[in-house]
Design goal:
The protein has 331 residues and is α/β, with parallel strands linked by helices. It folds into 2 domains: 128 residues, NAD(P)-binding Rossmann-like Domain (Rossmann fold), CATH 3.40.50; 191 residues, NAD(P)-binding Rossmann-like Domain (Rossmann fold). Strand 7, helix 7 and strand 8 form a beta-alpha-beta unit. The chain has 12 helices and 13 strands. 36% of the residues lie in helices and 15% in strands. Helix 1 packs across helix 12 and helix 4 crosses helix 6. The relative contact order is 0.14. Bound molecules: 1,4-dihydronicotinamide adenine dinucleotide (NAI). The site of 1,4-dihydronicotinamide adenine dinucleotide has 30 residues, from helix 4 and helix 6. 1,4-dihydronicotinamide adenine dinucleotide binds next to helix 4 and helix 6.
């Protein structure tokens, strides 16, 4: 089988080649993102392999179908970038990697909380510059702080579990509550109560039509003054303009973003010699209490190995006509 791999970085090539040792599929690696302009590159490939910022809307899927693509394999858990309804209509199978290392993302979310609270990013730069003052570095004890987790699936629960080790109280809001979160000491509440009571709010639910901009001006105004907001899930959960206003007023005291709604225009590339034409992102980067990373929460050796092994297995299963739980459909 011939597989066109989009959004390829050197680490993707290394881990996909390792995972492909026994199967010997023919990979063609493209650095380009998949979109309507680049979709002709996939012509003649039965399988297309994509990542989080590749675009698989109706037009792109139609173009892939016309080129003979029958399977799309996602090197990700999130699938908000794929029009599943159209994929179903076109008979293109879509398969993902549902869990490659929830620990990696949970550990990163906790890292962001510690970094922001204790201002480690500022201390690092300050000391390197010969400034040993503690002024402005005051943090708070996580012990007995209230953490609100929006989405208590695999990553949300692991984040809660780690934070309960620090002695945090855990509140959860989820459309589908589960016992595992209760077992780690979490209490489920409705969203308004979580927003009002949490010192730290961390987002771990998928981006859907329903959750789009769930953190908007109204939700922000319901939060505690000086709240810490962490998003390692998907950028579209937060209205970045509203959060900028909340940072200006002091309502949000700390912001940690590993994802950003317009990230496909900037993330994963070295833009250090360019002017970034995203005024909202530039404004966010100017606040001293904001830490932004480039969608790296997943990025561990374990996760890369699991992503690439499951991706190859998804292709094997498709080739053998097997339906599995990794297959995605609109309903
Ligand atoms: P999961 O499916 O185990 O958990 C998601 C939870 O969100 C479920 O319990 C579900 O019931 C809940 N949920 C769904 N819609 C909701 C809504 N509208 N409001 C509240 N809760 C809702 O998924 P997992 O593995 O924990 O991943 C969570 C998210 O993390 C993914 O959707 C993905 O967007 C993001 N992610 C980010 C990565 C990164 O590198 N930054 C890497 C991997 C995932």
């Amino acid at each position: 089988m011939k597989i066109a791999v989009f959004s390829t970085k050197p680490y993707d090539i290394q881990y996909l080649k390792d995972a492909n040792r026994r199967t010997a599929y023919q990979f063609e690696f493209y650095e380009e993102r998949l979109n309507l302009r680049t979709s002709p590159l996939a012509a003649g490939f039965e399988v297309v392999c994509v990542f989080v910022n590749d675009v698989l809307d109706a037009e792109v899927l139609q173009s892939l179908k016309a080129g003979g693509t029958r399977l799309v394999v996602l090197r990700s858990a999130g699938f908000n970038n794929v029009d599943l309804k159209v994929a179903d209509e076109l008979g293109i199978s879509v398969r993902r990697v549902p869990a490659y290392s929830p620990n990696a993302v949970a550990e990163f979310a906790v890292g962001m909380i510690l970094t922001l609270n204790r201002k480690i990013y500022r201390a690092y730069n300050r000391v390197r510059d010969g400034n040993f003052s503690l002024e402005g570095l005051l943090g708070f004890d996580l012990h007995e702080s209230t953490v609100g987790l929006i989405g208590t699936g695999k990553i949300g629960t692991l984040t809660g579990q780690a934070l309960s080790g620090f002695g945090c109280k855990l509140l959860g809001y989820d459309k589908y509550p589960n016992d595992h979160f209760r077992q780690i000491g979490g209490s489920y509440v409705e969203l308004p109560e979580l927003l009002a009571k949490s010192d730290i709010i961390s987002l771990h639910c998928p981006l859907t039509a329903e959750s789009y901009h769930m953190i908007n001006a109204g939700a922000l105004s319901a939060m505690k003054d000086g709240v810490m907001l962490i998003n390692t899930s998907r950028g579209g959960l937060i209205n970045a303009v509203a959060v900028t206003e909340a940072l200006k007023s002091g309502k949000v005291g700390y912001l940690g973003l590993d994802v950003y709604e317009q990230e496909e225009d900037v993330f994963f590339e070295d833009r250090s010699n360019e002017i970034i034409h995203d005024d909202v992102l530039q404004r966010l980067l100017m606040f001293p209490n904001v830490v932004i990373t480039s969608h790296q929460a997943f990025f561990t050796k374990t996760a890369m190995r699991n992503i690439c092994e499951t991706t190859v297995q998804n292709i094997v299963d498709f080739e053998q006509g097997k339906s599995t739980a990794n297959e995605l459909h609109a309903n």
